Amino acid sequence: MKKKIIFRLAFLTAATFSLHSCRTEDELNHNPQETVNRFQVFTSRNGEPVNYPLGYKILLERYDSIYSTAHTRKALLKNNILEKSVSEEYVEFNIRSQELMMKNGNERWILYPVAKGKEVIGIEVGILKNKETELEFWRIFLQQKDIGRAGYE
């Protein structure tokens, strides 16, 4: 009789502990204040520093592949557009500015040239903001008369 009581008590304790641990895990997973959906390319792996320029490149190339656009040289080469015509513009990721942190600390900017043929026709600005959960690209075109001028009259 004592063995049955001890066995039932042990089984009941194990079941209670199991249900309590599941409840605690659910509370941890569903806390919206601590959940931040960052891009995987902007997270540190094995303590290494994050390579932000590479992350910008990967995400814009992925955008091109999903939406069949041609913002990057890789997409133009894949579609054989660059070889047929040098009039297509693309973002040149091999040349970039250093990472610029804004004063509020919530935005990280990197500038890339926009090439058309062998000329730079604009600047693409990659902006990572809102705790590295949003990425925007803005394109600034240069006017033809401003290209090649150094500000001298």
What is the helix tally?
4
The SSE string, one letter per element, is HHHHEEEEE
Cα-atom radius of gyration: 26 Å
Query: What's the overall geometry?
Result: elongated
The proportion of strand residues reads: 15-25%
Sheet having the most strands: 5 strands, antiparallel
Mean of residue pLDDT values: 78
Low-confidence stretches: 149-153
Q: How many structural domains? A: 2
Structural class: alpha+beta
Number of strands: 5
Short description:
The chain contains 4 helices and 5 strands. It has 153 residues and is α+β, with helices and mostly antiparallel strands.
Structural summary, described in words:
Helices cover 35% and strands 22% of the residues. It has 2 domains: 1-35; 39-146, no CATH class. It has 153 residues and is of the alpha+beta class. Strands 1, 2, 3, 4 and 5 form a 5-stranded antiparallel beta sheet that branches. Strand 2 and strand 3 form a beta hairpin. The protein has helices spanning 2-29, 52-67, 73-78, 81-84, and strands at residues 89-91, 100-101, 108-116, 119-129, 134-141. The model is unreliable at 149-153 (pLDDT under 50). The longest helix is centred in the first third of the chain and has 28 residues, at 2-29. The protein is built from 4 helices and 5 strands, in the order ααααβββββ. The radius of gyration is 26 Å and the shape is elongated.
